[in-house]
Amino acid sequence: MGHLDNEIxxxxxxxIEMFLLVQKQLRKSIKAMNTLDKHLAREVLVNERRVNxxxxxxxKDCENFVAIFNPVAIDLRFVFAAFKINSHLESIGDSAKGxxxxxxxxxxxxxxxxVKDLQLAKMYEMADSMIEDNVRALSTDDSSQARLxxxxxxxxxxxxxxxxxxxxxxxxxxxxxxxxxxxxxxVTRRLERVGDxxxxxxxxxxxxxxxxxxxxxKIKS
Length: 221
Hints:
This protein is an all-alpha fold. Helices cover 85% and strands 0% of the residues.
């Protein structure tokens, strides 16, 4: 394996570590919300500095890769994709941070039935599985694995669209503590955002592997 190939493997491994870092942040933030664990929520906020530092490091590695190796073809596509994937991963970290901030402001655990009606557990599980799909796709250069993300994103969008009506119905029953409910809607928005970002990452992985741009496709097949 040549020096260029070694650098690609190293950069890919660093990206995968970034995937795992933001996935862990998301998992902690959801667990903190479900259990009202403010210590865990604050841990997410502290670790956000590490996410930001990793983003800067990977960006710098990408810049150095281009400057040193002047890559072409699939190697050039990889480094372009890596830049964008890195940015999307940092944004997933921001979503986890946003959820953690809501936890710190919470006075009590959300109503169990409301959380069930909002399908928050399903949203989280789908968002988490989309990260897993992209990790496998990047690790194995398997674009078919990345394509699994798109249908999950559609389902996440559909669940998110129902959130406002679900909370409105809950308020109509006499529940008037509005601010926590608005925060809960924001949690669903952040999980939906993780789905959007994961779809963007899947597009970049497909671009890298297949030299196919899906950004403006209505249907990703």
